[in-house]
Design a protein that fits this description.
This protein is mainly beta. It contains one helix and five strands. It has a five-stranded antiparallel sheet. The chain is globular.
């Protein structure tokens, strides 16, 4: 996987707009974007816009990651 930051113009604290990460596979095929915000995460598969992405709150994400 290749993950890169689209825009690094954020302070150390994530603001409302958040940061957007480009996600590519090992053949440089764009898989989607991951948007990290104060309220949670949004996965935008392929060329999906943020408004149509799959959202998860930080609580839901932490619960999912800590589940067995």
């Amino acid at each position: 996987m290749k993950v890169s930051i689209k825009d690094l113009s954020v302070s150390m604290e994530v603001k409302n707009k958040g940061i957007e990460l480009d996600v590519y596979d090992s053949q440089d095929l764009h898989l989607g974007d991951l948007i990290v915000t104060k309220s949670g995460l949004v996965w935008c598969k392929g060329r999906t816009r943020k408004e149509n992405g799959t959202s998860v709150s930080w609580t839901e994400f932490i619960d999912w990651m800590e589940s067995e």
